[in-house]
Amino acid sequence: MYFNIPSAIALLSSVHYLDLSQNLFTSSIPESISIQFLNLAHNVLTSSTPHSFNQLSGLQYFDLRLNQITNSIPSSIAYLTSLGYLYLGTNRISGPIPTTIGTLIFLVYLDLHHNFITSTIPSSMGFLRSLRFLDFSGNRLNGSIPSSIGQLSSLLQLQLGFNFLTSSIPSTVGHLTDLLSLAVDTNFITSSIPSSTGLLTSLVYLGLNANSLTSSIPSSFSQLTNLMGFFALENELSSSIPSFICGFTMLQYLGLEDNILTSSLPSCLGDIVTLVN
After folding, report:
1. Pick from 106, 214, 204, 116: which is nearest to 162 by CA?
2. Can you give the pTM of this predicted structure?
3. Which has the closest alpha carbon to 170: 153, 187, 150?
């Protein structure tokens, strides 16, 4: 049995926190609700992103994960000027990412993974200087990764895997010096790995699998001594496997198979006691 979200909740003017997650609600959200925290995750909502957000300007936390939402993200999302956390992952959202998303300057966490979003990544994303977690993985995004991504100076995790992204990884990614995890697996990214990636000295995980990356592993990678997982299998990387990888004393997982590398693994890798066979 499924249930509608009662329109009377719009009258709860003194309520700031509303958690209706893990239920069987199907109807859309009343557009005039005034609230700061709204969690509707794990329901069966099908069209729960309102066409107009102009009555939700005080919303700070908005969670619609694991529903069945099919409509697109409206450009009126720009009205959510207080929003810090937006979770729309694992739905059936289609259409583009609106350029107006760049107005949400207080956004810290943005999760759109596992949907059917078809567009380029808007360059306006570069205005989200407070963003710490960005997950666009598992969509149908196309075009190149915008150079403005390098303006997200607070970013800790960048997940862009399993899309249709092309061109190269922008050199501006080297500006993300707080980044802990970078994943662009399973796209159509070409060219060489930018040497500026070596500036990401906080990086713990780097996932580059299943692209068309060429040339060698940059010598600047010798600075990535905090890496615990480095995956670049199924590419077109050439030259030898650099011995500086042996300096990655925290490395647990290394995947370089299905490339055109010209040497065997350095024997010193056996000295990395953390490496999983």
Report:
1. 116
2. 0.94
3. 150
